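input
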Amino acid sequence: MLKTSLKVVYTLIRIIPIKLRNGNKFKIKKEQRQLEKGLDIIIKRNGEMTIGKNNNIRRNCHLVANDGGKIIIGSNNFFNYNVSITALFQIKIGNHCKLANNVVIIDHDHDYKNGNNGYKVDNVILGNNVWVGANSTILKGVTIGDGAVVAAGSVVTKNVPKRAVVAGSPAKIIKRY
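output
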């Protein structure tokens, strides 16, 4: 009981400064399982971030909603160490998802044809019960269906159907279940 109470107090200590700094741009459910030290939440200008309840977000994760970007995280998710999520447009993660160490999710590319002065942006959507293996990258414009699995070290550049397993760079379907 005391250990649970200490986790709640620690989570509140982590969240209060973020909430004070960002106001209504940052929404988080009160019932959080664990938000570890070193969690880096950045919300710039018109960015927004919503985090559901009972998420376990480990140390050194970076969640960045740049100007106009939205990050929406459902409930009961697990983000292991060093997960990096950066939004200029919108990234939505469903419920009961597991992201392993060093996963990168990004919804934009530099528009190199215009002298690096702009970006190309598109949604990234992870359905419910998605499992993303260590050192994987999910790029702009990708929707990963419910129950899909992304193998470790994959680079996902195209949509993944529900209940499919993808692997490789670029990721390709290797199995359906």
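quick obs: The mean pLDDT is 86.
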